[in-house]
Amino acid sequence: MANDSIQKVLIRMLAIVICFPVHESAHAWVADKLGDRTGRNAGRISLNPMVHMEMFGTLCFLFLGIGYAKPVPVNIGNFKSPKRDFALTALAGPLSNLIMAVILMLMLKLIMAGAGIGAAYGLIAEGLIYAAYLNISLAVFNMIPVPPLDGSRLVTAVLPDRLYGLFLKYERYSGLALFIVIFILNRAGISPIAYATGAVFRAVTGLLGL
C-alpha cells in the first residue's frame, strides 16, 4: 500500500516536470512573439520546472492531485491588439498541453511496438499515460471560461469594454468560487472535468490507434 502511494507521488512528480513548464513557457513564448517581453524578462520561456513551480501549488498536486504553477506575468499594454493578443497568449497554454499529450502517447505507441522492456515497462507506460492524461486535464480545466483561467481570456476577447472591466473586476473571487464548487462536486462524486478529460483522452488514443 505504501509502495503504491510512493509510486503515485513519483509519477505525479514526473507529470509536473513535463506539463507545467510546457504550459507556462508557451504562454510566455507567445506573449513575447506578440510584443510583450515581460515573461521572457522574468525567465519564464524555459522548460526548467523550478522556474515555474509554486511551492504550495506543487505540494497540493503531489498529495491531493490538484494544484497549480506560478502564472506567467503579462503586460497587455505591450500588445498591439490587447484583447486579441491576450486571448492568443492564454490559448497557447492549453494548446501546448494537448500537443504534449499527443507526443507522449506517440512515445507510448513506439514503446509498445518495441515490446519486451521487462519489469520497467509497466512503470514507464504508466508514467507516460498519466503525464498525457494530466496534460489533457490541465488543458480542459484551463479552458473553463472563469477568471483567472485561460478560457476566460477567450471570452474577454469578444466582450465590449464595459463588460470587460466588470469581468476582470471579480477575477480574484471567481477563481476561489470555482475551486469551492469543484471541491463540493468532487465530494459528491460529480466530476465534470474528469468526464471531459476522459472524453478527450479517449478521442486522442482512438485517433492514434491506442
Could you please describe the fold and organization of this structure?
It is a single chain. The protein has 210 residues and is an all-alpha fold. It contains 10 helices and no strands. The longest helix has 33 residues.
Q: How much helix is in the residues?
A: over 70%
Overall strand count: 0
Order of helices and strands: HHHHHHHHHH
Please report the number of helical segments. 10
Rg result: 18 Å
- Uncertain stretches of 5 or more adjacent residues: none
Instruction: Provide the β-strand percentage band.
Output: under 5%
Provide the residue-averaged pLDDT: 85
The termini sit apart by 29 Å
Largest sheet: none
Identify the overall geometry.
globular
Instruction: Tell me the number of structural domains.
Output: 1
Going by helix content, strand content and strand pairing, the class is mainly alpha
